[in-house]
Amino acid sequence: MSRVLVTGGGGFLGSHLVELLEQDGQDVFVARRRDYDLTHERDASRLFEDAEPELVFHLAAEVGGIGANRANPGRYWYANLQMGVNVLEQTRLHGVDKLVIAGTVCGYPKFAPVPFHEKDFWSGYPEKTNAPYGIAKKSLLVGAQAYREQYGTNAIFLLPTNLYGPRDNFDLETSHVIPALIRKMLDFPDEIVLWGDGTPSREYLYVEDCAEGFLLAAKGYDGPDPVNLGTGIETTIRETADLIAELVGFEGRIAWDTSMPNGQPRRSLDPSRAKELFGFEARTSLRDGLERTIAWYRAQAPMHAAR
Asked: Which of 76, 133, 206, 221 is catalytic?
C-alpha cells in the first residue's frame, strides 16, 4: 500500500480516482482548493509536508468550455501553469517516487492529423480559444521531461480526451459540451441555442474509464513520453446533440448560432500507445455513459436548479 496524494481529489475526475484508489487499498490524501491553493508555493509546500506522499496524481486544474476559455485566457494560463510548476518542484524536493500529471487534449495543434498521435503533439499551435490552457499544460510536459533528465524525477504525462460522467460540471457558464447539452435540454424543453454549426467533432471518455487509465499508468508506465487516453471514436457535436436529445426525450428546436466559434475542428485520439504500454482500453460506450450521466443529473437537478 502506498501513501497517495491526489491534487484536485474533490473534483470531477479526482473524486472518481480517489474512490478507485481506496478500493485498490491505497492510503489516499485528498487535496482540495479550499485547503491548499496550489498557485502559491507556500501552500504547495505545506501540502507535501502534510501528505508525505510516495505517489502523486496532479489533477488540480482551472478549466471550462469554450465560453469559459474565452473569458479567462490569462487566468487559465497562469493558474494551470503555476499549479503544475509548484507540484513538480515539490515532488523533487520531497523525493516522491512517482508523479502522474494530467495533461489535456487541448494541447494538440488545431490541425493535427486525425486521429491525434502523440508524435504530432508539437507539430503546431493549439486552437486559439483554448490555447492558453493547452499551452500551460504542454509546458508541464517539458518540465516533467527536464526534471527526469536532470534530477531523475519519475514524472509521467497522460493526455485524456474530453471527459464526461456523473459529478461533471453542469454550470452553463463554464461546463463542457455534454453536461451543457444535458442541462439545456432538460431546463429548456422548447428550444435551445448551441454555438457554431455542429460540424466539429469530439471524442468522449467516460470518467470512470479515465480513472482506471490513470491507475493502470501509475502501476505500469514509467516513460518520458506523453500517452493518450481515449476511445478512438469520433463524434460530431450535432451527433452528440441528437443522441442526448433522444436519451432525455427532448423534442424542442435546436438552433445553431453560427456567429459563435466552433472551437477545435476535429478531435479524436489514437489510443493504441496506452493499450500497448499499460493495457488500457475504454470499456464504456457513449450511449451507456450518457444514460448513466443523465440519470445522475436527473437525481441532482433540484439541487442545481436552486443555485
From this structure: 133
